[in-house]
Design a protein that fits this description.
Length: about 475
C-alpha cells in the first residue's frame, strides 16, 4: 500500500470526511444536484454517500463525534475500513482523502483504517492476481495531513503488514530458523542490527527453558537479538522488548485436544511479530531511543525426545522448574529471554505473548491483559497509548497469592498454577525471572481473527503494535 500527499490539483476519486452534515458546504466540485443528493442521504441518517461521476467517484463520509475523543478516533478508522470495501467494490486503484472536520487528524485516522483493512495474504493462492484488491494508493490533500504524519502512517502500515504476514505464514514455511531469517531481512530493510543465536550457541548458553520446549521438535530453536541504537538516545539504559516465538504450539505431550484448538496455533509467535514489527518501525522512524528486542523461538511438539510432565528443568537463570504441563511452554521460553535481558541493566522490559487462554477468556478479543512491576507513570502511559490507538489494556494484579499457586514440591517453581487465575499465575512465573521494571502483555485474545472485523483482516492482526509504538514515541518526553 502506497500512502502519500496528493501533488496534483485534481483527483479522480475523492472521499470527503465530515463530522457534521453542515460541512457539505465545504465540499467542492460537486454539482448542485449531487450536493442535494448527498444532503438528502445524510438527512436520512445514512453516513456514507456514493456519487458516481463521469470522471471518478466522490464519497461523502460522515463521522459524528462520540462520547470520548478516543472513541471518535476509532470511528474514523472504522469508516476508513468501510471506504476500503467500497473502493474495492468499484475497482478503484486510488482514493484521495479530504478532511473537512474540526479534527486535524481525521483524514489520517480514516486512511489508517482503510490501509489496515486493505491487507491481504495471497501467497498460497494460485489465483492471487485475480484476488488482489484494486486499491493501491491512499492519498491526502495538502490540507488534510502533514508530510510527517503521512510518512509515519506509511511506516506503521508497512510494519503491521509484515507482522500479519509472519503470523499468517504456517509452520510448513515459518520454522524458528525461518522466523529468524525473516527478522534479519526486516533488520536489513529498516537498518537495525540482528544477531541470531543458533542451537549450538543456545546449548552453550544453557538456555534450559527454550531447549526443553524444543526437545520434542524436529527443527532447531533460535534466539534472535535485535538492536536499534540512535545517535542520541533519550534513555540512558535500554528498553528491551521480548516476543514469544512459538512458531507452532501443539501443546507437546500435554497435547491440545485436536478439535479446533490447534487451528490457530501457527499464530503462537504473534508476540515475536509484534516486537519485530515495532523494531522495524522505530528504526525507520529513527526514534531517539535505545531499544533491544529478543525472540526465543521454537515449535512445541510431542516428538520422541519431548519434555514430559514431571520433568525438572534447569532454566537459563539457574532456577529449576517442575513442568506439570508441556502446553505451558510460552513461559518456559520467555523466562530464558527475561533472564538474558538482565545483562543490559534495562530501564524497562516489555514482553508480548499469546500466553494464556485465560486472558483470552477474560477480555475476549477486545483488549490486552497486562500486568507488571513498572512504576505508575509507565503503566499510565501504556494505558493512554492503548486508549489512543484503541488497542486497550486491562490490568491484572500480581498478588503474592498467585505466586503461592506456582510453588513446587520438588523444584523452585512449577509451570502451571491450577484451575483459577491462569493469566496471573503465568505472570507470576515470568516475574520470577525479572529484576528490573517490567510489563507483560498477554495478547492471546487479540492476535488472530477468524473473520474480518472492521480494519482487522482475517488471520494475524498485529494488535499491540500501534499501542507500543505510540508508547515509545511519547517515551522520555514527559
Ligand atoms: N499458546 C497457548 C495460549 C493460547 C490459547 C493462545 C488460545 C491463543 C489462543 C499457550 O501456550 C497455552 O497453551 N496456554 C495454556 C496454559 C495452561 C496449560 C496453564 C492455556 O492457556 O491453556
Ligand atoms: Mn501452549
Ligand atoms: Zn503457546
Amino acid at each position: 500500500m502506497e500512502i502519500r500527499i496528493l501533488q496534483k490539483s485534481t483527483a479522480a476519486n475523492l472521499a470527503w470526511i465530515l463530522d457534521d452534515a453542515s460541512k457539505l458546504s465545504l465540499v467542492t466540485g460537486l454539482s448542485e444536484t449531487e450536493l442535494k443528493y448527498a444532503s438528502d442521504v445524510l438527512a436520512a441518517d445514512q453516513t456514507f454517500v456514493t456519487i458516481n461521476r463521469y470522471n471518478g467517484f466522490s464519497f461523502v463520509i460522515l463521522v459524528k463525534n462520540k462520547k470520548t475523543a478516543n472513541q471518535t478516533a476509532e470511528a474514523y478508522r472504522k469508516a476508513g475500513a468501510e471506504l476500503q470495501t467500497v473502493c474495492n467494490k468499484y475497482k478503484l486503484a486510488e482514493i484521495v482523502l479530504c478532511n473537512t472536520t474540526s479534527l486535524p487528524g481525521a483524514a489520517i485516522l480514516t486512511g489508517e483504517g482503510a490501509a489496515l483493512a486493505n491487507y491481504q495474504f495471497l501467497k498460497y493462492r494460485t489465483e492471487a492476481k485475480k484476488l488482489t484488491n484494486s486499491l493501491q494508493r491512499i492519498l491526502f490533500t495538502k490540507n488534510s495531513a502533514t508530510v510527517k504524519e503521512v510518512a509515519q502512517l506509511q511506516t506503521t502500515i508497512d510494519a503491521i503488514y509484515k507482522a500479519r504476514t509472519l503470523v499468517n505464514e504456517p509452520l510448513s514455511y515459518l520454522s524458528a530458523e525461518q522466523l529468524a531469517a525473516e527478522i534479519s531481512l526486516m533488520g536489513k530493510e529498516a537498518g537495525f542490527k540482528v544477531t541470531v543465536l543458533n542451537k549450538a550457541r543456545i546449548v552453550k548458553e544453557k538456555m534450559g527453558g527454550l531447549l526443553a520446549v524444543n526437545r520434542g521438535s524436529i527443527q532447531p530453536p533460535t534466539f534472535t537479538i535485535m538492536e536499534h541504537i540512535p545517535k542520541k538516545a533519550l534513555n540512558k539504559k535500554p528498553i528491551v522488548l521480548i516476543g514469544k516465538g512459538i512458531v507452532y504450539d501443539t501443546g507437546g505431550l500435554s497435547l491440545k485436544p485436536t478439535a479446533n484448538s490447534m487451528d490457530r496455533m501457527k499464530s503462537d509467535m504473534s508476540g515475536a511479530a509484534v516486537v519485530a514489527a515495532t523494531m522495524y518501525a522505530i528504526s525507520k522512524m529513527q526514534l531517539p531511543l535505545h531499544v533491544i528486542a529478543l525472540v526465543p523461538a521454537t515449535d512445541n511438539r510431542p516428538g520422541e525426545e519431548a519434555y514430559v510432565p514431571g520433568d525438572v528443568i534447569a532454566m537459563y537463570s539457574g532456577a529449576t522448574v517442575e513442568v506439570l504441563n508441556t502446553d505451558a511452554e510460552g513461559r518456559m521460553v520467555l523466562a530464558d529471554a527475561l533472564h538474558w535481558a538482565k545483562r543490559y541493566k534495562p530501564e524497562l522490559v516489555v514482553d508480548f505473548a499469546t500466553l494464556t487462554g485465560a486472558a483470552a477468556a477474560a477480555v475476549g478479543e477486545h483488549g490486552i491483559v497486562c500486568m507488571g512491576t513498572a512504576d505508575d507513570a509507565i503503566r499510565q502511559a501504556f494505558h493512554e497509548s492503548g486508549n489512543r490507538q484503541y488497542e486497550r489494556l486491562v490490568e491484572y494484579p500480581l498478588w503474592d497469592e498467585y505466586g503461592d499457586q506456582i510453588k513446587s514440591d520438588v523444584a523452585d517453581i512449577k509451570n502451571i498454577g491450577g484451575a483459577t487465575g491462569g493469566a496471573m499465575t503465568a505472570g507470576k512465573f515470568l516475574e520470577h525471572f525479572t529484576d528490573y521494571p517490567w510489563m507483560h502483555f498477554d495478547i492471546a485474545g487479540v492476535s488472530f481473527q477468524t473473520a474480518r472485523k472492521g480494519y482487522q483482516t482475517t488471520g494475524g492482526t498485529g494488535y499491540g503494535i500501534r499501542m507500543v509504538l505510540d508508547f515509545l514515541a511519547h517515551y522520555g518526553k514527559a
